[in-house]
Design goal:
This protein has 290 residues and is α/β, with parallel strands linked by helices. It has helices at 14-26, 46-56, 71-81, 101-107, 141-150, 170-175, 188-199, 223-239, 244-264, 271-288; strands at 4-10, 34-40, 61-64, 86-90, 94-96, 112-120, 130-132, 159-161, 165-169, 204-214. The chain contains ten helices and ten strands.
């Protein structure tokens, strides 16, 4: 009997998916209770990837989406195929560092409906395991978020887990409509969290201090991707009746603070620091159009 369905959505991800699957099976602590479903959003390399996965991982179910409908729509395809009562959403650039499946299933008993692990960008560099919901954002929380993540402090009433890798009870996810397919990419985590909290106010969402790698720290800045992120976040704000202007002001403050931190730490010429000025400019321009 399947206990957990792991959904991995790919789009031109051949460079990532094999190492991702290697880490999954190397750290599988529930044996045949795991089903792995790879959904491809019309990749150029799909035929090669399908053949390679079939040879290396014969138990993996791989299917090609009818179109590239975005992150949420593609994952919904995999969720509908899943037989297990718990689903996990995993990006192809995730690498498991140690077993986590059994602990997640244990956590999702009783009154917990969703959980996620501890995101790392490298074995020593913390990633973003969680962030404040858009309705809970304030100027004070911007500097506090680094302290919270350093001490593994998570408040499910005000914070949403990273969408790169999380576990959720399938029946509860289905009840809230799964991923909102109007969102092509980004912003899904906060939207899902707000809908879960509204539908299941007495249920818990938990953070597990079990580390995993998310290989996203060195992504170069892309204006198109950042604008797509802002569009998604503003859609979520409007959907839940939140102030778009307040969200943009807090984001602008956070970006400026991050840039200042890089300069004070002597990293003014780092890849990270170079991403902030264009992000600040785009955010300012968008705020001024409101």
């Amino acid at each position: 009997m399947k206990q957990l369905a792991l959904i991995i959505l790919t789009y031109n991800s051949e460079k990532d998916i094999y190492d991702c699957l290697n880490s999954v099976y190397a750290n599988n602590d529930i044996g045949d209770g795991l089903e792995v479903i790879v959904v491809d959003n019309q990749s150029e390399d799909f035929a090669t990837m399908q053949q390679t996965i079939a040879q290396r991982y014969p138990k993996v179910i791989i299917t090609q989406n009818t179109h590239n409908g975005g992150y949420g729509q593609g994952n919904n395809v995999g969720i509908r195929m899943a037989q297990a009562p718990v689903v996990a959403i995993m990006n192809p650039d995730i690498r498991l560092m140690q077993p986590i499946f059994a602990a997640a299933l244990q956590t999702l008993q009783k009154d917990t409906i969703m959980c996620g692990g501890k995101q790392m960008h490298t074995p020593t560099q913390l990633g973003w395991s969680y962030a404040f919901d858009y309705n809970a954002m304030s100027y004070l929380q911007v500097p506090l978020r680094n302290i919270y993540k350093r001490f593994d402090y998570y408040d499910y009433r005000r914070m949403h887990l990273s969408g790169a890798f999380f576990f959720i009870k399938k029946v509860c996810f289905e009840e809230i409509g799964m991923f909102d397919e109007q969102i092509f990419m980004y912003g899904e985590e906060c939207d899902i969290h707000l809908r879960l909290r509204k539908a299941f106010p007495k249920k818990k969402i938990q953070f597990l201090s079990i580390p995993y790698l998310h290989l996203s720290a060195e992504r170069p800045f892309e204006e198109k991707r950042y604008r797509q992120l802002l569009d998604a976040d503003l859609y979520v704000c409007r959907k839940h009746g939140l102030s778009v202007a307040h969200y943009l002001r807090i984001r602008l403050f956070a970006l400026r603070l991050c840039l200042l931190r890089c300069k004070l730490q002597g990293r003014g010429n780092s890849i990270e620091a170079q991403t902030y000025p264009p992000m600040i400019q785009i955010t300012k321009e968008l705020l001024h159009t409101l």
